[in-house]
Amino acid sequence: MFLRPTNPPGPRFSMKKSKFSILILCWLKKSNKIFIKFSLFLNFSLIIENSELSFFAINTKLPRVKSTEQKLASMKVFIKKIILITLLIIVNLTSVNGQEYQNEKGIIGLMYHRFEENKYPTTNVRIKDFNLQLEMIRQNNLEFISIDELKKILLEKKEYKSKKVLLTVDDAFRSFYDNGWKILKEKKIPFVLFFNTREVSANNPNYMTWDQIREIHNSKIGIIGGHSFSHEYLINKSDAEIKEDLEKSHKDFLRELSFKPKYFSYPYGEYSSSFKSIVKELNYELAFGQHSGVIDTSKDIFELPRFPVNENYGKPERFLTLLNTKPLPFKSFKPEDKFIAKSDNPPKIEIEFYKDINNLQNLNCFANDGGEWNRKKITFIEKNWIRINLDSKFKTRTGRINCSVLDKDNEWRWMGFQLVIDGIK
Q1: What is the DSSP letter of 179?
Q2: Distance CA 172, CA 200 (A)
Q3: For residues 418 and 402, is the Cβ–Cβ distance under 8 A?
Q4: How far apart are CA 8 and CA 56, in angstroms?
Q5: Pair (85, 119) in one structural domain
Q6: Best label site of 205, 219, 393, 405, fewest CB within 10 Å?
Q7: How far apart are CA 64 and CA 18, in angstroms?
Q8: Where are the strands (E) in 258-392, listed by range?
Q9: For 378-402, what is each residue's pLDDT tens digit?
Q10: Are 343 and 394 in contact (CB under 8 A)?
């Protein structure tokens, strides 16, 4: 048996002279799917997507047999061997993805709320700081990306070479329209505006109007996304109530803008597994939380991270550090459901990384369990699989865990998680 690269027009099987069978294995490098074809008495395939393919052929010589029964028996053995070989190849091929993710520069999502509303420092950015942040992005040769372009990278696997920045604005406060929008319009910087429709439809003076939102939509600079109808703590409501709330916002969108939003931002960044399922069911294509981290193609497209920017976290030194972060790809996080029952507080945290991620022995993780931020002890279950040991229960509604590691190019890889603890207000 031997393995060789090839670009075959299709699998063939011949019993005449050479008595060889060919198994064609097509590895979808970008989508992490496997497409298999071989010809004996059957032809089968598993999910094909628009992705770059790698082809391999395995030639195996069949023994010379005379009777039909002997042929069938030898073919059964042959098929079993081919299945085993295929599984081994799949394991080897999919392991390459860790290296691919590690080479990604990432997309830095920035989350803003209020602009020059200085009495709300935890959600506000001062305009002088905002202008400085935009200039820092320019000086670091980072390119702004629209959310439609981000979708092409994450869903259509479009390649990108350099680090990007996605600018997002939540809630559609009037201060954004009065102070932030004119800057982005003048500089033609793409962004996405997520807002809940109840306040806008009620003509709340602290929020933008539908005419102002239409202006941004028609400009083609800003893209409008969904943020629910009520902006209440939806994670505490039933699935039916969550769905009803989102569908009410869709009716407002259709009435005022003639479309349903494709992109979603969870109110307060809170989501559960069932909330995520509803967002998928309602045909949203991407969804964002409020946990920090760098977006890359390994991330769950319905749990995308963003760095919050406010008066404290928008200071130049911190903002420059943020711009120099890279993705920290991981394979899985436990618990999968980010809505933690009171009886499960503190939760058991485990993270599995791709095996090619470097320098994990120097990983640092911090959490706000016990009411304050502290560095956590890390236990290695395996070389690329860790347990984060929480010292005490989360005392606040929002539990946060942030992990980082210094990469070989002296840039920080960063990832964050936001948990919601049931029973805490």
Answers
A1: I
A2: 8
A3: no
A4: 9
A5: no
A6: 205
A7: 10
A8: 263-265, 286-288, 307-308, 325-327, 332-334, 339-340, 349-352, 364-367, 374-375, 377-382, 385-389
A9: 999 999 999 999 999 999 999 999 9
A10: no
> Cβ distance 246 to 198 under 8 Å?
no
Report the residue count for the chain: 425
Alpha helices, H only, 125-238: 127-139, 147-154, 174-175, 181-187, 197-201, 210-219
The phi and psi torsions of 397 (rounded to 5 degrees) equal -60, -40
What is the Cα–Cα distance from 87 to 71, expressed in whole angstroms?
A: 24
| Structural domain count, the chain | 3
Same domain for 84 and 108?
no
Query: Are 136 and 268 in the same domain?
Result: yes
* Crossing angle of the two packed helices 210-219 and 239-257, in degrees rounded to 10: 70
CATH number of the domain encompassing residue 356: 2.60.40.1220
349 near 388, Cβ under 8 Å? Answer: yes
* Residues sharing a CB contact under 8 Å with residue 361, sequence separation 6 or more, in sequence order: 380
The reply to whether 128 and 262 lie within a common domain is: yes
Q: Are residues 122 and 257 in the same domain?
A: yes
**Do 37 and 128 fall within a single domain?**
no
Listed residue (306, 309, 338) closest to 122, CA to CA: 309
Q: Are residues 380 and 403 in the same domain?
A: yes
For 210-255, write each residue's pLDDT tens digit. 999 999 999 999 999 999 999 999 999 999 999 999 999 999 999 9
Which of 94, 110, 130 delimits the end of a domain? 94
d(CA 168, CA 358): 31
Give the domain range for residue 14.
2-94
If DSSP codes are grouped into helix, strand and coil, which group holds residue 228?
A: coil
CA geometry: angle at 367 spanning 137 and 400, to 5°? 65
pLDDT at 7: 40
Q: Are strands 398-406 and 412-421 parallel, antiparallel or unpaired?
A: antiparallel
